Amino acid sequence: MTRDAAIGAALSYFDGGGFERDLARRVAIRSESQNPEAGPEIDRYLADEIGPALRELGFDCRTMANPHAGGWPMLVAERIEGAGLPTVLTYGHGDVVLGRPEEWRDGLDPWTVTREGDRLYGRGTADNKGQHSINIGALRAVLKARGRLGFNCRYLIEMGEETGSPGLRAFCQENRPLLDADVLIASDGPRSSVGRPTLFLGARGAYNFHMDVNLRDGGQHSGNWGGLLANPGIILAHAIASITTARGKILIPELLPPGIPDAVKRALFDIDHDGGEDAPAIDEDWGEPGLTIAEKVHAWNSFEVLAFRTGNPDNPVNAIPPRARATCQIRFTVGVDPSQFLDILRRHLDAHGFPMVALSQARQAYANATRLDPENPWAKFCEASLARSTNKKTAVLPSLGGTLPNDIFADDLGLPTIWVPHSYTGCCQHAPNEHLLVPVAREALRLMAGLFWDLGEAGAPKPRAS
C-alpha cells in the first residue's frame, strides 16, 4: 500500500493497453454537441461509458437535466469516504466538436483511435475524452493500491462545453450541495511545453463580437461608381487598424489589464511556449512590446480578427460591395470588465471618425477571466506532488492562455481551481487529425495517480470550515 504501487498500477493500465481500449470505445461515440441530432450519442456516452466506469470505482452516479432549454444533460457522481476529509471536485466534458471526417488525412477517421508512432489520433483524444479518461484511470489505480481514496471526490461531466457550456452556470448554482468541495482539480487544455508537467490556476476570458459596416442595399459597378462611393471594406479595415498597431499591440488602454502582479511574473519567469514539432514559429515582435512570450499568452490581453468578409471572396465581381463584417475577439485576463468592452470600443471608434461601424456581441455567453494566486496552499501542494512524481520542475501558469468555464467554479462555487493538462498546443484540437501524445498520456497517468494518492495523505491541505 504505497504511492509507488499506485503509480505502478496506473502505468500497467497504460502499458497493458487498457487505457487505449477505454479511449477507443469513448472516441467511437459521436458525441458532437454542435450537431442537433447527436442526442442519442450524447446520452450513450454518459449511460454506457462514464456512468459504468465511475460506478465500478464506488461512485454514486446520476444523470441530470440541463436547466438551459435544449441544453445537453450532465452527469454528477460522488464517492464520500468520511467527514473531515478533503473533498475534491473534478470535471470533464464528454462532448466533442464536429468530426468532419472528410477533412482528415488518408488513413485516419475521427471516430477510430489510430496509433501512429507516439500519437493517438481521434476526435476527443485530446479534448477532452482522453484527459478525463486518464484521471478516471488514475483514481482506479489509487483504489487498487490503497483500497480507498483517502478523500471525498465529486465528479461532474458536462456534454455541452464545445457549444459554450450553456446551462452549466445555472446548474452549478442550483446544485451547490451536490458539488460542494474544497478544491477543483481537473484536466483540460495544453501543457506549456511537451516534456514539462504543467498546472494552471485560471484562464483568460474570451469575448467575441462583430464589427459591421452596412452602407447601402446592393453593390454598385466599380467602373461607374469607383472613387465616388465609400467602400465598406476599406472603412472597416481602417477601423480595425485604429484598435491595434500593425504588429498587434492594443492601442486602447481601457482594453488592457492594469499590469502583471509580481507573483505572476515570478511564476512565468522560466515558462517556455513549445507546441511540438508541428507548431508554427512564434512571431516574437507581435503583441505587447516588453513582455515575454509567456506573459503575452498567460497574463495579458490580445485582440484578434477571426474572420473578415466583404463582397464575395469566392467569386469576386467588379462591384463596390454594400457591406462588410469582421468577427473579432478579445482574450482577456483579470483586471478588466468585459461587459464594458463594447462601450469602450464605441467611444474609441466615434472619436476616430468611424460612427458608421456597428458593434454587437457575437454570442450570449462568454467566460470571465480567473486567476488563483500561485502561492495558494492548494497550488503549492499540487505543484510539489507533480514534481515528486517525475523529478521535473512543474510549470505553474497563473492563467491558461485559452478559455474554459473556470469562472463558474472559481466565482460561483468559490473554489480554488487547479488544472493539470494532459495535452499540448500542437494536438490539433477542434481541427482535423486531433491527437494525444503517447508519452504525455503515460506520464499524465503517473502524475495523477501520485496526486490522487497524495490527496489522501496527512499532508494535504485541510478542508475548509463548513
Overview of the structural elements:
The protein is globular. It has helices spanning 3-15, 18-27, 39-55, 129-146, 168-174, 176-179, 222-225, 232-241, 262-268, 293-298, 341-351, 377-390, 406-412, 438-455, and strands spanning 60-64, 74-79, 87-93, 114-116, 119-121, 152-158, 183-186, 198-200, 202-203, 205-214, 220-221, 302-310, 319-320, 323-332, 358-361, 370-371, 395-397, 417-419, 435-437. It has 2 domains: 3-203 and 369-455, Aminopeptidase (3-Layer(aba) Sandwich), CATH 3.40.630.10; 205-257 and 301-361, Alpha-Beta Plaits (2-Layer Sandwich), CATH 3.30.70. The chain has 466 residues and is α+β, with helices and mostly antiparallel strands. Helices cover 31% and strands 19% of the residues. A 6-stranded mixed β-sheet has the order 1-2-6-3-7-18, sandwiched between helices. Strands 12-14-10-15 form a 4-stranded antiparallel β-sheet, with helices on one face. The mean pLDDT is 95. Helix 1 packs across helix 4.
